[in-house]
Design a protein that fits this description.
This is Alginate export domain-containing protein. By secondary structure, the protein is mostly beta strands. It has helices at 2-14, 170-174, 317-320, 412-415, and strands at residues 25-38, 49-64, 67-79, 93-105, 113-119, 141-150, 153-162, 187-199, 202-213, 225-235, 242-255, 267-281, 289-297, 334-343, 349-359, 382-396, 399-410, 426-436. The chain has one domain: Porin (Beta Barrel), CATH 2.40.160.100. It has an 18-stranded antiparallel beta barrel.
Length: 437
């Protein structure tokens, strides 16, 4: 516990500096969350589990003319979970320097920038490249990024090595052991992302991402070599108006179906996803927004081309429910219509409730991140339904209190498969408090 206390003290000491004319830009946060799950959906995890997670962050930047130096430390820990808990590298990454970069502005206006070092990224909808927020740890990368205007839009091009979070062994995770995350030239990620404001609340995004992975002496992988081109068209929300979003991506390349040392067969990839959403914000004091959503994401039947979509480094909480001890639904092997109602009763209070139906795109593959699979497909395609809700209250400008929960009503595909756990429906809840400056 000594390290979190020291880092917390550093954050408190640094906070006043952000309020002066000091050229340093300093920000940070402290978050504590308690969560619980019952009726586990994972085949081999604790049937009922609880955990307390903490996350401390401290970021600093300073400009030297056209040059900017920046860095950010994360301290993410978990306490009190069961011996077979699902808590892993998504929750634990103790005292890690996730960002340490130099950024050079190539022109006087600062529209062309090159960034080198360790950094995080959010691109577009965050479905494929994201800096995690709800999750206790974040995705981060080491490499180079270029931002520049192009064709009346904005271009981002990057080549990075995604950081592999450590520790990744059970003992290290349970002890919140400090271990430096590693970059590996055997895992490389590159891409080009272009966006343009079309006017009238409309925007267009085009992108292509490439992932290259191969085994090394210590780690067996699926040797993913993936190309993921896609687009997103959006008409943003406005009071009294309709909003629309369409995003789709294809995926091609080669993978191996497992990480087993004896699996040396490369299989062609043919996968993809589509997201469609339409909503309307009503003219009401609470600004309610009602939206209909539909997601179609391919799965793999174990024969022929490999069909399970790889969401790369995307986020899912904003679309498919909380992560942490929960998180059965992800952007893989799912067909899911849904409805969502958002409201903001006051400046300090907002929330939403969402309902989704869940079907497997391929009955022989596992739904999302559940790990439940019936290779014969005899358990059918109906995965059930999920309802979730969240309430968030801003106690002060710097302190946010949040609570939420979800319930997974399991269908045949999650109850009749050979490795399905015997527990009933899954219930999950959490409450957290965040101080940010």
């Amino acid at each position: 516990m000594l390290t979190p206390l020291l880092l917390s003290g550093a954050i408190a000491a640094a906070a006043p500096a952000a309020q002066t004319d000091d050229p340093w830009r300093v920000s940070g946060s402290v978050r504590a969350r308690a969560e619980a799950i019952s009726g586990q959906f994972r085949p081999a995890a604790e049937p009922n589990d609880t955990a307390v997670t903490t996350r401390l962050t401290l970021a600093a930047e300073r400009d030297f003319g056209r040059l900017t130096l920046g860095g950010e430390a994360f301290d993410s820990r978990a306490f009190g979970q069961g011996p077979r808990s699902s808590v892993g590298t998504g929750e634990v990454n103790a005292l890690e320097l996730v960002q340490a970069y130099v950024a050079l502005r190539l022109d006087r206006e600062g529209e062309q920038t090159v960034q080198l070092g360790r950094f995080t990224m959010d691109l577009g909808s965050k479905r494929l490249v994201s800096r995690q927020n709800f999750r206790n740890t974040t995705n981060a990368y080491t490499g180079a990024r270029l931002d520049a205007p192009l064709a009346a839009g904005d271009l981002t091009a990057f080549w990075v090595m995604p950081q592999v979070r450590l520790p990744d062994d059970r003992a290290g995770i349970e002890d919140n052991r400090i271990a430096w995350d590693r970059e590996d030239p055997d895992l490389q990620f590159a891409g080009v992302f272009w966006s343009r404001d079309l006017g009238g609340r409309r925007s267009l995004e085009l992108y292509v991402y490439g992932l290259m992975e191969r085994d090394d002496t210590a780690v067996q992988t699926r040797n993913r070599r993936l190309a993921t081109p896609g687009f997103r068209w959006r008409q943003a929300a406005a009071v009294g108006e309709w909003d629309v979003e369409v995003e789709a991506a294809a995926q091609a390349g080669q993978v191996r179906r497992s990480t087993a040392p004896g699996d040396l067969q490369d299989v062609d990839v043919a996968a993809g996803f589509v997201h469609i959403e339409a909503g309307r914000t009503l003219r009401h004091g609470w600004s309610p927004r009602l939206a209909a959503q539909f997601d179609y994401v391919t799965g793999d039947g174990g024969q022929g081309d490999y069909g399970r979509f790889d969401t790369l480094y995307g986020a899912r909480r904003f679309e498919f429910g909380p992560a942490g001890l929960y998180g059965p639904v992800s952007r893989a092997n799912v067909v899911s219509p849904g409805v969502r109602l958002e409201a903001k009763p006051t400046r300090r209070l907002d929330g939403f409730v969402a309902l989704r139906g869940l079907w497997l795109e391929d009955a022989r593959d596992s739904l999302g991140a559940t790990g439940i699979i019936d290779p014969s497909g005899a358990s059918g395609r109906f995965g059930g339904a999920q309802i979730e809700a969240r309430v968030r209250y801003r106690v002060t400008p710097d302190v946010i209190l949040e609570g939420g929960g979800a319930r997974l009503f399991k269908g045949r595909a999650l109850t009749d498969a050979p490795n399905a756990p015997s527990q009933g429906d899954t219930a999950y809840g959490y409450v957290d408090v965040t101080y940010a400056f």
